[in-house]
Amino acid sequence: MTTQTRVTVLGLGDMGSAIAGTFVDRGYRTTVWNRTASKAEPLADAGATATGTAAEAVAASPLVVICLLDGTAVDDVLGAVGGAVAGKVLVNLTSGSPAQARANERWAKEHGAEYIDGKLMGDPPYIGTPNISIPLSGPRGAFEAHESTLRELGGIGYHGEDAGFAAVEFMAQVAMGYELLIGYLHVLRLVRAEGMDVTEFAGRVAGSMAGYPPLLTGIAQAVADGEYPPDLGSLRVQAALMDDMIGHRESVGVEAVRMREVKELMDRRIADGHGEQGFSSLIELLAKRGRTES
After folding, report:
1. Is the pLDDT of residue 4 over 80?
2. Same-domain check for residues 164 and 28
3. Which one of 103, 105, 167, 293 is least enclosed by Cβ atoms within 10 Å?
4. What is the pLDDT of residues 175-200, one digit of tens each?
5. Which pLDDT value is given to residue 78?
6. For the chain, what is the domain count?
7. pTM exceeding 0.85
8. Contacts of 7 (CB under 8 A, 6+ apart)
9. Cα–Cα distance between 202 and 198 in angstroms, integer?
10. Residue 266 sits in the same domain as residue 205
11. Are residues 205 and 159 in the same domain?
């Protein structure tokens, strides 16, 4: 058995236990540690080696996977293991911000280790299947050295050398979902307030969503290029709809804050002489707003 088949898992909550269990089931020499030692017992019964300290667990393997409650817990554990991480590759799958990931990478370098940050986009039962998405970022050499092991956990994606990029991907993906779903709830209120069947409406919306992938990629390309074709039609045409959209919502007591924001941005963009551009051009005003607020 080579060193490539040895892996340590720190943290045995629901997700950490699923990660360690997957490694054990697939024949990896798996070492585990958890602050509450009793959580390691089922894994030890299945063939893992449980240690009394995190430092002992780290010393056992070249690859150390960390899955804890939050960034504070990660800081506490890293502080406890200290020099034991020298020469190891740390893969932190704990939720956290890009800034935290970059700070962890700096700590790892100072202690002679390499650091890969990752995020888990799925639930514990999906660990080890393609149904979980795991963005990763950090040193390419370290990622490639352990890629096959990390692929045991699910659908991984490498996002570059910047340790913060996996967290950026995670935060952006989750935010996209919330932005979409809160808007969807407002729309369902609108449909229900008018007496229509919301479930039948949902089926029609689900069908129309097939047209969104090319729109999303087209808007992103426009933002990247700084050139804004009339994606949904020109802003002049789109803006003509907005008063009716706002009025309809308010007439049935549905909030119109987002629609008012869109109208205000469109009106400003048109006034600046960009009325023939598309919806994607509104990012220019959002960028200016961000600089003003900062």
Report:
1. no
2. yes
3. 293
4. 999 999 999 999 999 999 999 999 99
5. 96
6. 2
7. yes
8. 23, 28, 29, 30, 31, 61, 63, 64, 65, 149
9. 6
10. yes
11. no
Is there a single domain that holds both residue 220 and residue 262?
A: yes
Residue 202 CB contacts under 8 Å (≥ 6 apart), including other chains? 188
For residue 126, what is the DSSP state? G
Q: Taking residues 56-69, report their average pLDDT.
A: 97
Q: Identify the domain containing residue 231 by its residue range.
A: 198-293
Distance (Å, whole) CA 126 – CA 193: 38
The whole-number pLDDT of residue 143 equals 98
CATH number of the domain where residue 225 is located: 1.10.1040.10
pLDDT tens-digit readout, 73-101: 999 999 999 899 999 999 999 999 999 99
Are 39 and 116 found together in one domain?
yes
| pLDDT of res. 289 | 74
Residue 241, classed as helix, strand or coil, is: helix
Q: How far apart are CA 74 and CA 72, in angstroms?
A: 5
Both 19 and 162 in a single domain?
yes
Residue indicated by tokens 């070249």: 62
Decide if 34 is inside a domain. Answer: yes
